[in-house]
Amino acid sequence: MQAMILAAGLGTRLKPLTDETPKALIEISGRTLLEIAIRNLIEYGFNKIVINVHHHADKVKNFLESNTFAADIFISDESDLLLDTGGGIKNALQYFDNLPVLIHNVDIISNLDLNEFYNYHLSDDSLASLVVSKRISSRYLLFNDENILCGWEDVKKNEKIIVRENKNYEQLAFNGIHIINPELIKKFPEEKVFSVIKAYLLLAQREDILAYICNDIKWMDVGKLDSLKRAEEMITKIR
């Protein structure tokens, strides 16, 4: 199975820690976020992992070269231009075969059963499946009663994008883990820099992008300074 870890971000919410250290190499309980993500993927049977790099790219490359992992690791280098999540996935297409790709943000820690999620994606014969949950957030993806993506909403800015009309929409927060078939990546926007959410919303007008609802998992976005201590406590509980 193949996966991609999105690790190219600037980590601005973790400043000043990320001034000289890429977000991927921030440590939680003595292990970097990147190592935690890689070993978690390997534990679930992912033996081919693509990692994109940009901010302090050489430090991430040196880390990977100085550590041994039981998987084939490929680096998608964005040193010249940070491509955002969608552009980063599209740029890495050259490394993928025709099987579904699990995409995992480097700053997400959870106890999600990745095999169960992968099998769900295969059983529904979908082109993309997004891990979402019913939790408080400032931004939501909007789904119909068949769990098909219909839109996006920013409740703080009072902005909404609807790509499929429906009587009622369920607000679900995206958890930074998703599976996408390479054939859908080929339909991503032509531009270089764009978010994966933008791509999904464009494609959802004619393709079924499905929700994988997980309300009972332990999950954390380690993107802010105040989340580091809580992440250490969570890592201890789910080990």
Summarize the structure in words.
This protein has helices spanning 33-43, 57-65, 84-91, 114-123, 182-185, 196-203, 227-238, and strands spanning 2-6, 27-28, 31-32, 48-53, 72-77, 101-105, 108-110, 128-133, 139-143, 149-154, 159-162, 170-180, 209-213, 219-221. The chain is of the alpha/beta class and 239 residues long. It has one domain (2-238): Alpha-Beta Complex (Spore Coat Polysaccharide Biosynthesis Protein SpsA, Chain A), CATH 3.90.550. The longest helix is centred in the last third of the chain and has 12 residues, at 227-238. The relative contact order is 0.18.
Shape call? globular
CATH architectural category: Alpha-Beta Complex
**Rounded Rg:** 17 Å
Order of helices and strands: EEEHEHEHEEHEEEEEHHEEH
Distance between the termini: 23 Å
- CATH class term: Alpha Beta
Count of domains = 1
Please state the oligomeric state of the protein chains shown: single chain
Query: Helical residue percent?
Result: 25-40%
* Name of the CATH homologous superfamily: Spore Coat Polysaccharide Biosynthesis Protein SpsA, Chain A
Q: Which features does this protein show?
A:
239 residues; alpha/beta; Spore Coat Polysaccharide Biosynthesis Protein SpsA, Chain A; ten-stranded mixed beta sheet; two-stranded antiparallel sheet; 7 helices; 14 strands; globular
